[in-house]
Task: structure prediction
Amino acid sequence: MMGIDAMPEYQDFISISGRTALDPAPLVLLHGSGMHERNLIALADKVGADRPYLSLRGAVKWDEGFAFFRRNPDRTLDDADLFNETHHLADFLAKASTTGLLKRPPVLVGFSNGAIIAASILLHRPETIAGAVLLRPLSPAPAADFPDLRNHRILILAGERDERRAPEDVVLIRDQVEKSGAGATTRLVPTGHDLGDDEPDFIRNWLAENFPPA
Result:
């Protein structure tokens, strides 16, 4: 585990680089609520064993773990905190690119809470990333128009039986992303909020097609 004094919001993260002599787009792993920076590493190994990654710990304490932003007591999104934490994360990504910690614009891989802040990065600071894998997302701003994302590729995976999401949630964020001009792929999988067994293979193939080694 490594830390960077200039990046106090994300002093706790895991960095794995040099996993290949090639130069694929690195992954930035963003866990869900109540989780931590190690929870998505097994997924990263399955979807891109040759890809370097950063696995971040959310800055907000949540239950027995962490989250990337707060919710209100009724579980609606805390819009102000989400906005602030989005810019903290984007500043970290920009600094990581400047220092060489990220050697290419990364692909965010966000699950649940992490997928929402990843979508918020696409909304507010898309210049800091190349694309995103949004696993069980919600729109960070249902009434907003996303900026021009024609240079970004985005994968959205939603569970058909997700008890934490309404069917219209994935339709909303899909429509926002597609309206932005992004290269978007959306898939419904026959599972709940947790990932299905075949999803890592689908993500791996999507990454290989959309973000091959330079």
